[in-house]
Amino acid sequence: MKEIRVVIIDDEAWTRDTIKRIGKWRELGCRIVGEASDGLSGLECIRQLDPHLIITDMKMPGLDGVQMLRELDELQNPAKVVVVSGYSDFKYTRQALASHAVDYLLKPIQPEEFNKLLQGCVETIRREDRTQTIRSAPSISQGVDGAWLKQYQEARDAARKSLDILTESGVEHAFQMMRELFFACDKELHLHLLIKMNHDIHAMVEEKTIAWDEETDPRFSPFQISFAVGDQKTIDDMLEHYRGIIEELVSLRVSEHQRKSRVDIRPVRNYIDDHYQDSITLEELAGTFSISKEYLSSLFKRDNGCTFTEYVTRIRMEKAKELILEYQIPLKKVPEMVGYMDVPHFYKNFKRYFGITPGAMKRLTEDNE
């Protein structure tokens, strides 16, 4: 079956974060599709996202857990409910049990106990869904016309494509389009739209963190990515939340790409040191190491402080000096031994490099002796 959708509702951010952090979500095939910081927003998340599992606090502002569970009963919502609360008052337990809650956990939540309960819920949901049509979350289309929906889908797809190619400016432009579309609708639709936009953006970012295998990085775990909608939360709060995550994510990926694509220049230098007698060209060297001529040229300039030609010339000149002074090789044989078929070119480069001709250098050394 498809992944099991989960909605978390609690007015305490640290409790929501604890639940997200300790849950074995991917291991159990679950995905947190919505998060809310009050009962009214939580109830709207349930209506809009149609989760399989609801994890909720009982005492919350606006609409407490008791009222919310009664609403779910009236809606005949089939989702499983796990109640988490720091209040052990029997009225909350009684209402939870009367509303067919799977279980009632007291804070502080213990990871082993929580995951055991979560696994039981997953098994029950999967068993029941074998005989039912698998539910899929409703789209954002409720309450908006076709033209609005088309523009929204274009903005959402543009954000996803921009994230694919690591272009923050494209994501920002798409976010601004979403914001304009949000305020183009009646205020009575704002909570609905906020929930669905949050769901879409979260899914997009989460998809990338999984595809890029960044879940082990604490900055990109479900614990950090998710945004909790609430009575005091705005579209700007939500977009700013995801901007920060995307900025870090893009920065990390760009750095990783640069690291992986960066060629170690040392083997290239070693190759030149071993083949300086040959007629080495930048094009041939680039082909040998399967990189572009332009990239190899920039690597030399960045890592060696000189161009490819300057580096080859330096190696050849130092070798020529060594042959002349230490090995007493006749001057007429030196050019070919250091890779020069054009003797005048060798003499010209030698004088430019050392400031004197090969013969003058040899005589100067002999005179000093």
Q: What is the makeup of the main sheet?
A: 5 strands, parallel
Radius of gyration: 34 Å
Terminal CA distance? 90 Å
Low-confidence stretches: none
Q: Could you name the CATH class of the largest domain?
A: Alpha Beta
Biggest sheet strand order reads 2-1-3-4-5
Number of domains: 3
Structure annotation, total helices: 17
Regarding quaternary structure, what we see is single chain
The CATH superfamily name of the largest domain is Response regulator
CATH topology of the largest domain: Rossmann fold
Overall outline? elongated
Q: What structural category arises from helix and sheet content? A: alpha/beta
β-strand number = 5
List the helices and strands and how they pair.
Layout (H helix, E strand, L loop, with lengths): L3 E6 L3 H10 L7 E7 L2 H11 L3 E4 L8 H11 L4 E6 L4 H9 L4 E4 L4 H19 L16 H19 L3 H16 L6 H22 L10 H4 L9 H27 L3 H11 L6 H7 L4 H12 L3 H18 L8 H4 L5 H12 L3 H11 L1
Protein model, in words:
It is built from 17 helices and five strands. The protein has 369 residues and is an alpha/beta fold. The chain has three domains: 126 residues, Response regulator (Rossmann fold), CATH 3.40.50; 113 residues; 104 residues, Orthogonal Bundle (Arc Repressor Mutant, subunit A), CATH 1.10.10.60. Strand 1, helix 1 and strand 2 form a beta-alpha-beta unit.
